[in-house]
Write a structure and sequence with these properties.
The complex is a heterodimer of chains A (169) and B (304).
Chain A: E1 2-10, E2 13-26, E3 31-41, E4 55-65, E5 70-81, E6 86-95, E7 100-103, E8 107-111, E9 114-124, E10 130-140, H1 145-151, H2 161-164
Chain B: H1 2-12, E1 18-22, E2 24-28, E3 33-44, E4 47-58, E5 85-98, E6 101-111, E7 116-120, E8 128-131, E9 134-137, E10 140-144, E11 150-153, E12 156-159, E13 174-177, E14 180-184, E15 189-200, E16 203-214, E17 220-226, E18 229-233, E19 236-240, E20 242-246, E21 251-255, E22 259-262, E23 265-268, E24 271-275, E25 281-284, E26 287-289, H2 296-299
Antiparallel strand pairs in B: 1-3, 2-3, 3-4, 4-5, 5-6, 6-7, 6-8, 7-10, 8-9, 9-12, 10-11, 11-14, 12-13, 13-15, 14-15, 15-16, 16-17, 16-18, 17-20, 18-19, 19-22, 20-21, 21-24, 22-23, 23-26, 24-25
The chains are: A mainly beta (169), B mainly beta (304).
Chain lengths: 169, 304
């Protein structure tokens, strides 16, 4: 198939939707092969990835074995999250039985308050545990006392205070 | 005025970003924390902290709203990175380098808001701070990251080079212990408080507080003890309200009702000066009780 669009429904909501320029699916063996694929995932807020909001993934090549629940994306896999995170790695493997995603190539990611680079990663598919591997380097922005003050609830004026305020003429 | 303004600007500046390296980095989104393992190195504003492993904890909230589908975040929502670092804890062979000051300990906690790094030991070995040639250990070393000040609980300080010796005299380290030490680099001041004990050779000085002043080269210039001082050197004992030591002349001056007790002699004066190298004592406006028979062995050349 060419110029394919798809959507995945889960519990009455769109969990993912995407496109592929070329999509080859062999129903008998459960094999799929896609070229220039892009998908937008809408993770459950309770999942490890929920903090990112919607995440858009792209890969020049995707292949998978749905029967064995294994697959890979390669050729430069990118992600971009609604929160502002973005990252790139050369390839990503999906191991369904182990419930893990991994990469053995350079990972570069950045987002609000951080920049990180590693030689690979391994993560639980639900995002509850993400490990960057092979040597990690990065930068984090520390919190300040101002940040803590911002989190405090704003002082509320007593009722009627604004009504009784005398504006200068 | 310019220096004051500059100092205030430094004190008010927010903490800079923290750079890090490690072998692995494991993120626990629900707990808002990240583990760094293997050859961990964290650096910020010229301070470098290394160790075997580290735990980074992130602030609870305060992040930009999502670009799409803005929504409120609940208290128990998860986070990976992208939140501000609140604290990191480094364990195992912790080493801190800041300029020529270094520190080692078993456990280090950096608090971004308080702008402190607290070093502790493992119960067996105490944390150690090396400042130039001086070595300082204590129960707990608090390094301020916004200034160069240091606070130490139950400090033990060895002043290696600052007390110059006479040319032919052996080098005697000066050891100082106290319940607390505060180092103020801008004032070139080390302030010891609570149960201060200073030892140098056979001399032991005790008092509630002591200020040590240094010159720009890090050499000790003066010691000022206040609040009731007791000095012992061999059989000699002296008490006074104050004691001031001049490192250049190696002379200790006791003031504030000073009294000298020396093998039966009791001397009271307005001011007692003790030369530490020669053990010579001068008492101004002295009066007291002398017992020469107690010093006959000194007259025969026997060392007291």
């Amino acid at each position: 198939m060419h110029e394919v669009a798809f959507a995945r429904l889960s519990d009455g909501r769109v969990a993912a939707r995407g496109t592929a320029r070329v999509f080859d699916y062999q129903r008998a063996g459960g094999r799929l092969d896609a070229q220039v694929a892009a998908a937008t995932l809408s993770p459950e807020s309770s999942s490890g990835y929920g903090i990112f909001g919607a995440v858009r993934l792209t890969a020049p090549h995707v292949d998978g074995d749905l029967g064995n629940k294994r697959g890979s994306a390669s050729g430069g896999v990118t992600f971009e999250a609604a929160r502002g995170d973005r990252g790139k790695t050369e390839r990503v493997f999906w191991d369904g039985p182990a419930d893990r995603l991994s990469s053995d190539r350079d990972v570069n990611a950045r987002g609000p308050g951080y920049v990180v680079r590693s030689q690979g990663f391994s993560a639980r598919a639900d995002g509850s545990d993400v490990t960057l591997t092979g040597g990690v380097i990065g930068t984090l922005q520390p919190a300040t006392t101002d940040d803590a003050a911002k989190r405090l609830p704003a002082k509320r004026e007593p009722r009627g205070a604004s009504r009784n305020r005398v504006e200068p003429r | 005025m310019i220096a004051l303004a500059a100092a205030l600007a430094v004190a008010a500046s927010p903490p800079g970003p923290v750079d890090f390296t490690a072998q692995t980095m494991r993120m626990e989104p629900r707990e808002r924390r990240t583990h760094l393992n293997g050859s961990v190195r964290l650096s910020r504003d010229g301070m470098v902290v290394t160790g075997d492993r580290a735990l980074i904890e992130f602030a609870a909230d305060d992040q930009p709203a999502p670009r799409k589908k803005p929504r409120r975040r609940g208290r128990d929502e998860t986070a990976v990175l992208g939140q501000k670092l609140e604290k990191f804890t480094v364990d195992g062979n912790v080493h801190v380098q800041r300029g020529y000051r270094t520190a080692d300990g078993a456990h280090g906690v950096y608090d971004a808001k308080a702008q402190t790094l607290v070093l502790t030991g493992d119960g067996k070995d105490e944390p150690v701070l090396r400042d130039g040639t001086e070595t300082l250990s204590g129960d707990r070393i608090v390094l301020r990251t916004d200034t160069e000040d240091v606070d130490v609980q139950k400090p033990k300080l060895v002043l290696r080079r600052p007390v110059p010796e006479a040319k032919d005299a052996p080098e005697l380290p000066t050891r100082v212990e106290a319940s607390r030490l505060s180092l103020d680099r801008s004032e070139r001041l080390a302030r010891f408080t609570d149960d201060v004990v200073m030892r140098r050779g056979d001399m032991v000085v005790r008092g509630p507080r002591m200020d040590a002043h240094y010159d720009s080269a890090g050499q000790l210039t003066h010691l000022h003890l206040r609040g009731g001082v007791e000095l012992r050197q061999g059989d000699r004992r002296a008490v006074a309200e104050n004691a001031d030591y001049d490192a250049r002349t190696r002379e200790m001056i006791l003031t504030g009702d000073p009294r000298l007790f020396d093998r039966g002699d009791v001397l009271v004066g307005e001011r007692i000066a003790m030369q530490l190298d020669s053990h010579e004592v001068r008492v101004e406006r002295a009066h007291g009780r002398l017992r020469p028979e107690a010093h006959q062995d000194e007259a025969r050349g026997v060392k007291p």
